[in-house]
Amino acid sequence: MQVPINTRINQRSYELEVDARTTLLDLLREKLDLKSVHRGCEEGECGACTVLLNGKPVCSCLVLSPQINGAEVLTVEGLMKDGNMHPLMKAFVENYAMQCGYCTPGMVMTSYYLINTWDDFTEEDIRKGLEGNLCRCTGYTNIIRAIREAKKYKDAGYWW
Amino acid sequence: MQTREEKIISGKGIYVDDIVMPNMAYCLFVGSAYAHANIKKIDLQQALSLPGIITILTGKEILEAMNPLPPTFGSSDWLWRTPIVYPLVLDKARFYGEPIAAVIAESPDIASDAANLIDIEYDPLEPVVDLTKAIEPASPLLYEEWGDNIQIHKKVEFGDVQRSFEEADRILKVSWRENRASGFPIEARGCVAFYDKMTEILNVWSSTQSPSRAQYYLAQALKLPMTRVKITMADVGGGFGNKLNWWKETVVALAAILIGRPVKWVESKREFIVTGPHQRDVLWKGEVAIKNDGTILGIRAKLLVDLGVESTCREGAARTLAPACQAIPNAYHLKGLEVDVYGVVTNKSFYGAYRGFGKDKGIKFMERIVQMTARELHMDPVQIRKKNLIQKEEFPYEQITGYVYDSGNYEALLEKALELGNLPYWEKEKQKRREQDRYLGVGIGITVEPAGLGTSTNALTMARVRMTPDGLIEVEAGQPDIGQGSTITRRKIAADILGVKMDHIEVKRDNSDMVFTAVFSSRGAVYPTSALAKAAKLLRQRIISFAADFLNESPSNLDIKESVVYSKTSHKEITFKELARKAYFSPGPIGLGTEKKINHEVVLDVSATWFSPNTARHPKSTYTTFCAGVDLVVLEIDKHTGQVNILKYVHVHDAGTVIDENIVDGQIYGGIMQGIGEALYEELVYNQKGELLSNSYSDYLIPTTLDSPNVIVEHLCTPSPFTELGTKGMGEAPIIGSKVAVINAIEDALSPLGIVVTESPATPERIRGWILESKEEVE
Ligand code: FES
Ligand code: FES
Predict the structure, then answer these.
(1) pLDDT at B280 > cutoff 90
(2) Which of B50, B142, B681, B779 has its CA 20 to 30 A from that of A129?
(3) Beta carbon pairs, A and B, within 8 Å
(4) What angle do CA B673, B675, B678 make, to 5 degrees?
């Protein structure tokens, strides 16, 4: 069944006809070519597909396309500005917070939400906040380090 | 220039699943519902009539077009039985999920609808699921023609076992079981195959760890000359050995040829786990000859390994049994060792590579032996280790098993770990926490990691470095980047040696055109690095000699910095850009000295090969370098829940010369996390029917941020005399040492209860069970 939806994805408005069964993951990847959104488990277990829906992280593999009607979606592509990496992404690269990179865009989106939501946070907070994003490569150490460094960027006003 | 990391984090990485080609079809495999069953009938009619179905392949269809999967490279002294294996079941399914049909459709959804319409009639057979029962004479057989379920049996003996037992004060009996586990990176396996009519080449873009191996297997299986097969690596979402196997891909490629269209296959996470490479699953029983002063003299052991359905054709991991035995002596003097090894087939998915590749098994066994010896003698495990450690003056050290250790200072590593661990403090804590029903324990794991395998194609490494006519440098060295940082390190090596700016270096994406390219055996800092360093040094010489001619200077007077060749005594200099322009265009070779022209050294393009001097001189030392790590963990166990909480984690490492400490640390953190996961949670559980129960991330529990400890990492450095830059292969020690250190710590914590840990993972349920069975009353 085709359903018409109105939505904003990465600061752009779309009027789309979507199949009611299509997941947000498939819509973003296959229809809109937003390939930062990675297919991991498709069961809500790994977080590789994380995007922000109305500012909150969700597993896009668990969201059906009609659910984004009237909503706002943000992916890593939308975090970039004029082709430049967001300071958070820069912090990831600088701190060796990615190895294979498959979990990375999802990690970035969840971290972006966490940093923006909390005025201040502890390492324990980061660990709890990122629990749903699995990484098999890094042991998380450098990811946590990157988030701390990103916070410094934010505090210094280098952020968007 | 955008780096690999910047590209990927911006969402511009191209993993297999991101590849889209015009007119592309999709492949989906349909797996067996039974672990062991004869296939009576496959009815495709309904499925084929579904709109959007292009074709469906079964064993029958592929039989004509394909050879059986070629046995992977073996070794002359480990001979195993090789079954005839096709990637789709011919008549009998031998594991739950084994592919029976491949559906090729216009979309993944249509393929999955069709899969549900395929009607398969089975004649179920009794499955073989228990490792020890599988070798009993009454067991059902996987391969009737073998007469038993043993794919490989071999007894190996090193040193003087008999004498070591004669000299012993006592004999200690040990038993140690590691259950089935594997890597399962977040990205599963996949490929896109396309037969190009113009070049007549079968192109495959793949998530493989080795395009070279893939090319060989695919060509063999599809009866094609290798020159007609080209494999290119997509970005790869993690491997850890799990993407070395190559078998389903042959069906995808065949389908692409048959239908004349690109075909894509990307498996689901469940398919990856159910039909993926499995590892570990070993049972050791042994006797250890020890002296009352703590000297470990010798070991006699029997090793049973559950190879699942087989491990020679889908992948050659049966060979992991060799390093499993050879790595046992680890960091210690040992007089004699005997292992009776059985590689057993059962109705489970195939045995494949996973970080550790066999050497892990022997090392963990040894580190358990050290702990059990200490307990037997009422001594501190640290004392036992010190008593038996190889000393720093003894290198190069020829181990009884034939490995020649390049360099090291194991005692210094251990001392450093102890210092950082601050054990006296934790000893005091032990008592305090006991009163709150928490058991605190300390565990250590020492790992001497054999790295850089030098047998067969593994060691055929070549590097090419050239200056292109625009004055930039292109690097090729068979070391694909699957996240282990080889793009950064290759660039750094070339930049360092050549004196070039980092962003003037382009690292070529790996494909099967190169001599041999693969990620495994922690070979990066051994083979490709050495070949690359050699080639870069040669190119440097040539650049300087060209510049000498153009500047009319003596070569010894010249140096390079920031892509400029300059004279150390005059103001003369020439940029790489200018040098390249002169060398390639004008004056070109004419402007070079006579000597160079006579020697044909007129091109700024150099290749070099490299082979391990260690393996060359000592063929039994199949590995070249031996980095070392000491893991020290302090943890506590909640008596009531069996939950383990890591309080302190120290890792001291010696990988010789380090090219990029951040990359090395990343390998350490990641490896430790995987080892902890394996020690505490990760387990592939089959039920009596041979169905895999832990077939998703919700049952196969890989560690989350909440499980990751704060790791204190410290580096010591004893450069390897055997590699070009003193580097040592690394990346596997942390997964080995962490697992056994955690197990040793758990045993230490539970020692007041008299518990000996004989099985991993030590899940909360298991720990709880041990506590309940233990001597002490638990309320
Ligand atoms: S792909 Fe969505 S959570 Fe794994
Ligand atoms: S970087 Fe590979 S999964 Fe996180």
Answers:
(1) yes
(2) B681
(3) 161
(4) 110
Instruction: Identify whether the C-beta of residue B604 lies closer than 8 Å to the C-beta of residue B544.
Output: no
Which residues is B286 bridged to in the sheet? B174, B301
Domain boundary assignment for chain A: 2-78, 87-155
Residue type, B19: I
Q: What residues form DSSP beta bridges with B57?
A: B102
Q: What is the dihedral of CA A59, B710, B655, B680, to 10 degrees?
A: -70
Nearest protein Cα to ligand 2, atom 3: A135
Q: Locate tokens 């450095």: which residue?
A: B717
CATH number of the domain where residue B758 is located: 3.30.365.10
Please give the CATH number for the structural domain made up of A2-78: 3.10.20.30
Taking an 8 Å cut-off on Cβ atoms, the answer to whether B706 and A93 are in contact is no
> Is residue B367 classed as helix, strand or coil in its secondary structure?
helix
pLDDT > 80? residue B776 = no
Say how many domains are in chain B.
3
Cβ pair B532, B493 in contact under 8 A: yes
- Homologous superfamily in CATH for domain A87-155: [2Fe-2S]-binding domain (1.10.150.120)
- Is the pTM here over 0.90, yes or no? yes
Residue found under tokens 């032996």: B369
Among residues B94, B95, B89, the alpha carbon closest in space to that of B120 is found at: B89
Alpha carbon of B13: minimum distance to chain A alpha carbons (Å): 8
Identify whether residues B461 and B437 lie together within a single domain: no
The predicted-structure confidence for B36-56, as pLDDT tens digits, reads as follows 999 999 999 999 999 999 999
- The boundaries of the domain holding residue B607 are 456-611
Taking CA atoms, B596 is separated from B375, B408, B485, B548, in Å, by 69, 43, 37, 12
DSSP B103: E
What's the rounded Cα separation, in Å, for the pair B549 and B679?
Answer: 62
CB count within 10 Å of CB B670 equals: 29
Percent of chain B with pLDDT over 70: 98
| CB-based contact B9 A101, cutoff 8 Å | yes
State which residue of chain B sits closest to A104, comparing Cα positions. Answer: B9
Quick check: bond before B752 cis, omega within 30?
no
Give the phi and the psi of residue B385 in degrees, each rounded to 5: -65, -50
Neighbours of A80 (CB within 10 A): 19
- If phi > 0 it is left, if psi is from -120 to 50 it is alpha, else beta; for residue B64 that is alpha
